[in-house]
Design brief:
This protein is mostly helical and about 300 residues long. The chain is built from twelve helices and four strands. The longest helix has about 30 residues. It comes from Sulfitobacter mediterraneus.
């Protein structure tokens, strides 16, 4: 069943979009990631222009994250205080990111920038997570407790706060900085930023994995909602028809994903997520390498 997307100006199969939404919703519930890092490249692959994919995907993440966070609230695995601190940073980052996005759109360079950002970020994050998860699985098999690194320099920072749900007493500076980085990514790449937020919360802030997923989703809802509003009012690149189809699939998928996530070990979840990140990164990198004429013409157009 073909459906015409007015803003994207392309026709796409409606069931394909529902399926993609569902798949990404499942990931969002399992891993605590908005799923945008997979959905946005998937939208590129089916012919949606990158600027539209980024702005619309931020919209879809709001719904699938909201659906996932409700399931986590029932289990009391959301640290609201930590989520709020991350959110303050996230809103600042999103505003900065949309300004950069608008500037590059005016220069005609936004499509190339978005794809390059994906290749770099997914490659780095996927690689780090993969090796970290392998190490954790090996330690578990040997009967060693998973090493929780304590970063002394973080504990030395001022403006400390007590985060009871996470069992932490740390400075608010690292969470705010993580939030800003994630907000910028949400605006430029159309991602919830969970694929950076989740590892940062586990390894940098030392939060327990069970609390990380719900807290990450809580923060993502507001940052991506804010990003969508900014894109819709400044760029006019939010395609409502596309968003609704992805939304329906995403909400259903998130509930399924949350149930699967509870049954799996944290190390298994992390290694699965790492493999998916690397797979998408590989496909995007190939697309950029296999179409040198297009990249060259984009680069040349920006140069004049």
């Amino acid at each position: 069943m073909q459906i015409y997307l007015p803003i994207a100006e392309v026709s796409v199969n409606a069931f394909l979009l529902l399926g993609l939404g569902g798949l990404v919703g499942i990931l969002s519930g399992m891993f605590g990631v908005g799923g945008g890092f997979l959905m946005t490249p998937l939208l590129f692959f089916i012919g949606i222009p990158p600027a539209v994919a980024v702005a619309t995907e931020a919209n879809q993440i709001v719904a699938s994250s909201f659906s996932g966070v409700l399931a986590h609230f029932k289990r009391r695995t959301v640290d609201l205080r930590m989520g709020t601190v991350l959110l303050i940073g996230g809103l600042i980052g999103a505003a900065l990111g949309v300004m950069v996005f608008n500037y590059l759109k005016a220069q005609g360079q936004v499509d190339l920038l978005v794809k390059l950002c994906y290749v770099v970020f997914l490659g780095v994050i996927g690689g780090l997570m993969f090796f970290e998860s392998l190490k954790a699985i090996r330690n578990t098999k040997r009967g060693k407790p998973p090493a929780r690194k304590k970063h002394n320099w973080i504990h030395g920072l001022p403006f400390k706060m007590r985060f009871r749900v996470s069992g932490l007493y740390i400075s608010v500076i690292p969470p705010v900085v993580v939030g800003i980085a994630v907000g910028i990514l949400a605006a430029i790449m159309g991602v919830g930023g969970g694929f950076i937020m989740v590892p940062a919360m586990i390894y940098l802030l030392g939060m327990p994995t069970k609390v990380v997923v719900g807290t990450s989703l809580f923060q993502i809802i507001f940052v991506t909602g804010f990003t969508t509003m900014l894109h819709a009012t400044t760029n006019y690149t939010v395609d409502i028809v596309l968003a609704v189809l992805l939304l329906v699939g995403g909400v259903v998928g998130a509930q399924i994903g949350t149930r699967i996530g509870v049954k799996m070990k944290a190390e298994q979840l992390r290694i699965l997520l790492a493999l998916m990140v690397l797979a998408v990164c590989g496909k995007l990198a190939l697309d950029l390498l296999l179409q040198p004429s297009e990249v060259f013409s984009l680069g040349a157009a920006g140069g004049h």
